[in-house]
Amino acid sequence: MVAPASAAGVPAGVRPATITAPASTVAVSGTPELTLDELPVAVSPDVPADPATDETVATTSEPASGRIVTEPVVSDGYQSVGVTWDTDPSAPAVEVAVRTLTDGSWTEWVTLEDESSAPDPGTLEASRDIRAGTGSVWIEGASQVQVSLDGAAQSVDDVRIALVGEAAEVDGVAATTTDISDGVTRRTTTDAPAASRSGAARVDTGHAAVLLAAVAAPGIISRAGWGAAPQRCAFDVASTLLASVVHHTAGPNSYSSAAEAMAQLRADQRYHQDARGWCDLGYNYVVDKWGNIYEGRAGSGEQPVIGVHAGGFNTATVGVSMLGDYSSVVPPVAQRESVARVIAWRMAAFHRDPGSTVGYTTLGGDNSRYPAGTWLALPVVIGHRDVAFSACPGQAGYSLLGFIRQRARELIGAEFVNPTLSTSTVQYGGGLTVVGGVNSVINWTMTITDLRTGIRLVRTVGTAGSSGGATIVAWDGRSDAGVRLGAGIYRLDLTGTEAGTGAGVVPWSNQFTIQGSQNPPAVPTRELGTDLRFVPIAPTRLVDTRLTGASLGPASRMDVVVAGVAGVPANAAGVALNVTAVGTSTMTFLRVWPAGGSMPETSSLNTDQFRTTASGAFVGVGGEGKVSVYNNSGSTHAIVDVTGYFTKDAGAYGYSPLTTGARVLDSRSDGGRLTSGSTRRVQVAGRHNIPADAKAVMMNITSVFPDDVGNIVAYPSGGTRPVVSSVNHLLGNNVSNRQVIVLGADGAVELALQGGASHVVLDVVGWFGPTGSQGYNPVIPVRAVDTRWNGGGPLGPQSVRGVPLRPVGLPADASAAIVVLTATRQSAPMTFMTAWRTGATRPLASDLNTGSGRDQANIAVVATAADGVMQVYNDAGNADVVVDLQGWFSP
């Protein structure tokens, strides 16, 4: 038995209809393989067919009618017949009629509908060998068929009679396809097309997203259920659905079972694919006279698949065809109900009002009533004849469009109608509106989410009254925190409930982009301190633009308050920061410097769209207690964490470098990988010449061979794990970040890993404590060398290059230079760099881990020799090096 179509999901107040096939219908266990035979027709009795074959069908002329009639053609074993000819846009329409010899008597002539539908121009399907022609008609049981053509047939080439029937048995075994006994399913299709048409819907309503529909899918007999053949080629998918086109197949209404209805569908599909050259059945859905809905073109329930059912109007429409001829016979109640249901289901998902109109620009075509480029206020539910020179869906079928529109509206209920954004690109500081219709009173909720982070930044509510088209929501460009959203890609979601009933409406969603730069007014300058000492604090987050939406656009600056907050006193003269770029749209770099000072031509951090990147920084405190952070290209979120501050106050700690860097952990030989959610305590003070009373260390944290995306947090032992990160890694990439790490009371540090497991290496180059003897001297950063433009070109494998620092301001009494070391244009997939003073042995520990395809920076504190020259080593391949002086330590 064919199960009845389900009416689940009907809104309250609408009585569901039960649609049942006759009790005699059965689902067969296999479907016969169909074959197509094409017979050339000699359209002029005096001129042979071209191409002529032994099967050419002869014709005779009827002078009285001016028509051409073929000789009878044997049709035993065939199920349907149609007539095709070469496509010729300049040729007149050809009128075709057929009659059959059944049970010894000829039927009356039946006109075949001109099915001049063709794939829309520009689609993949349009590039195939497409033939013009009629629709096919069911002739099973007829022993002969005869075709009559009007005189226009002599104006077209290669006229063929196309006969579809069952394939002959092979060795006594009939060919069959997959078992279809499961029949009816409540699902959308799974054999989706392989290609998508970019921007295919040439429409005026933007790109509506498909979300959960308020109208549930009706019961649909799957393609497997009716024995569909596979699609023959990839076809296109539009960006939205705008309208529904109602058709009839114009075949006989005498089918008496769902099995016979399925047989007609299979014959129509074979005719469309083989005789017409289409990829699949032209219709998206077919409905039989009992209301059973059949899935037509593959993927139609999942995407706005472009069919071939209304030339010039295929794109962004759904074609629903009634199985049968409804020229004079009124479609049964069950059939029209199911047509309304499938239309309500598909239109609701795209916010179309079946009783309204939508803007549509036609793509034209041979049989279209409108030339390409014509803009129409197109009714959302139309008959094929509204847009094509056709009688489809028959006069009786067409007369029911009013009922179908109204019924589909009832099924949908309240909705946002044709919503769209006022703009898809917002300039920084601007806002936008959602405009569209509302067919009831709806209490709405609007949210805006940053697609880079998934964080919701805006939520607002309101009420919209019934309207044919107006502003539903207006947004001023600010987050709930009152901050203007920065450059990036965002999603706006609009949900709601009907005020009177509380029933939910179909939510709507769309994306937009904010672009442009933001630069606040400059703050006053502030003299930078000298000989500053360090005070550690618990790692604290100062800024995370992900939470406020204030991302940085291209050539954009933000000023971050670092003094007088988070345990940093107002008189602090410098800070130890960790700066992180996340959600970056393209390759870029960040600069960090004292606010109020001139922006330097340096970089503190380099990153790109494939990674989250962190870098430590020593920065003098500028005007208004701020530091400036600048992004060069694209957009990025920025995070700023502080681990301590520099001051002249008594009790602060000096810095002392280690003569030789100390490796306090290498998990490759000590403890193994850190895994997600795990922590590890590492004793630091009291080892490797680091005094037991050290309060903080200058530590390089390296992720080695991580197996996925993740991050490592280093924080004082015994303390609460802070909401910060120390180093961020990608699959397989060694990444290092040097920063000030505060030690616990026991002189240890805790490591916590989130995400992909990784080995960890910890290298200490210096420490802060009561016996530390050196003070910090901040400067406006300055570039010392860039081997791309000066400094001798790239470093080769295992090569060393000296970088003079005196010319850019490093004083003679400086004991250690604070630099940012950047690698770019690396040729090796993996390499590392090390920096040290002239005359010393190169340390084994690396200062920077990097590889081809990513610019990488890291801060380094390098002891200086009398000549003020820093040595840089590159391990593998070629790499250019950039060195920026950020400050220094001195006794």
CATH class of the largest domain: Alpha Beta
**Secondary structure tally: strands:** 53
Termini gap: 94 Å
Shape, please?
A: elongated
As for the CATH topology of the largest domain, it is: Lysozyme-like
- Total tally of structural domains: 6
- Mean pLDDT across all residues, rounded? 88
Tell me the strand percentage band: 35-45%
**Helicity level:** under 10%
Structural class of the secondary elements? mainly beta
Q: Mind summarizing the main beta sheet?
A: 7 strands, antiparallel
Gyration radius (Cα, Å) is: 37 Å
Question: Could you describe the 3D structure shown?
Answer:
The chain is mainly beta and 891 residues long. The protein folds into six domains: 34-166, Jelly Rolls (Sandwich); 184-412, 3-Layer(aba) Sandwich (Lysozyme-like); 416-514, Immunoglobulin-like (Sandwich); 517-651, Jelly Rolls (Sandwich); 653-770, Jelly Rolls; 781-891, Jelly Rolls. Helices cover 7% and strands 38% of the residues. The protein contains six helices and 53 strands. The strands form twelve sheets. Strands 2, 3, 4, 6, 7, 8 and 11 form a seven-stranded antiparallel beta sheet that branches. Strands 13-14-17-16-18-15-21 form a seven-stranded mixed beta sheet. A hairpin with a 4-residue loop joins strand 25 (442-450) and strand 26. Helix 3 (333-348) packs across helix 5. The longest helix is centred in the first third of the chain and has 18 residues, at 258-275. The termini are far apart. Residues 1-29 and 168-213 have low confidence and may be disordered.
